[in-house]
Amino acid sequence: MAGSIFTKIINREIPATIVYETDSIIAFRDIAPQAPVHILIVPKKEIPTVNDIQESDTSVMGELMLAAARIAAQEGIAEDGYRLIMNCNRHGGQEVYHLHCHLLGGKQLGRMIQ
Ligand code: AMP
Fold first, then answer.
1. Which H/E stretch holds residue 20?
2. Which residues in 22-100 belong to E strands, given as ranges?
3. Whose CA is nearest to atom 12 of ligand 1?
4. pLDDT of 1
5. Which residues sit with their C-beta closer than 6 Å to ligand 1?
6. Domains by residue range for the chain, with CATH
């Protein structure tokens, strides 16, 4: 997979509102937010789907979860709560094949499965 749209954001080839970044993780606001806070947390490594996670990715996946907690605190939604979602493949509704975690919050969220 050469150059997903998220890799273009990582490489500053297209704009995004970046809210968090480390050597291995980037997070930016979703272009079509589904909640008052809707942030995508993305490993810079191009892992296409959750199915493609390797043993060697355990560290970056841990960093992704740590980033989620830190961003939630940064956004002021940690105490009220939020939802983390990772869509995988067609039935999961995945549109961008560069692994990412949605962080959604800022209001009472509805039912998880529609
Ligand atoms: P998924 O369906 O889990 O693959 O989610 C992909 C998400 O990426 C969707 O919520 C889109 O709104 C979001 N998205 C697509 N392109 C961009 C972009 N250029 N900047 C920010 N978010 C984007």
1. strand 18-21
2. 25-29, 37-43, 82-85
3. 32
4. 47
5. 5, 14, 16, 28, 30-32, 40, 87, 93-96
6. 5-105 (3.30.428.10)
Rounded CA-CA distance 16/45 in Å is 18
Cα gap 109→46, rounded to integer Å: 30
Q: Which two tokens stand for residue 78?
A: 């940690």
Count of other CB atoms within 10 angstroms of residue 26: 22
Q: Tell me, what's the pLDDT at 3?
A: 85
pLDDT at 2: 61
Which mean pLDDT values do the consecutive 10-residue runs of the chain (114 residues) have?
88 98 98 98 98 98 98 98 98 98 97 78
